[in-house]
Amino acid sequence: MAAVSNFGDEIKADRKYSEFSAWHYVNFPADKDYKDVEPSEYGDLVIGINKCIEIITSEVSSKEDKAFYLKFLVHLIGDLHQPMHIGRLEDKGGNDIQLQWFGRGSNLHRVWDSNMIDDYGMSFTELSNSLPKISKQEVKQIQKGDIYVWIEETQEITNEVYDSVEVGEKLGYQYSYRWWNTVENQLLKGGIRLAAMLNDIFK
Ligand SMILES: [Zn+2]
User: Fold this and answer.
1) Residue 181 Cα, ligand 1 centroid: separation in angstroms?
2) What is the span of the domain harbouring residue 152?
């Protein structure tokens, strides 16, 4: 599963999959709920996740299609937990907020997509093994709700993240130190909720 989890990003390089590029995120105003806003005509994270579930659970879709959308679903539940994937339209989920990351040009989206995790210096396996150990009860608590509730929860973090930087700011250790717990928790929640979703689909 770890090996396919980046599949959704890998196919971005292939034009034939361009129709899926808007599925990785959803942008809507910070003071609104997803359900209050007209969805993008190009699709969004919610539309993408629901489409994946529809095809995986359909009796008429092909084995190949089911495999494709299952791999995509694994990826999208991860994206849902990256705060900048539930961002603002006007700065493209933080992509237009230019920053310095350890003296190099970056942006707020990239800091959260990869800079913090890459520079933590662990392999993905080491990182997943080092995530906080939680009880069965805590797992159940995290798995409550649905993608709309989870998006709302991520968006609360998004708002704090937007407030955490100034354009052009020089970020480094201090920023990672402040946010690393959040990064770990979001990774943990993403995995645990993906498990709940797959249990539900394949029950
Ligand atoms: Zn993605």
Assistant:
1) 21
2) 94-201
In the reported structure, the alpha carbon of residue 27 is separated from the centroid of ligand 1 by a whole-number distance in angstroms of 14
Same domain, 145 and 120: yes
Q: 178 alpha carbon to ligand 1 midpoint, in Å?
A: 24
With CA atoms as reference, report the closest residue to 127 among 198, 177, 191, 195: 191
Whether the model pTM is above 0.90: yes
CA of 24 to the centre of ligand 1 (A): 5
pLDDT in tens, 69-94: 999 999 999 999 999 999 999 999 99
31 CA distance to ligand 1 middle (Å): 24
- How many domains would you assign to the chain? 2
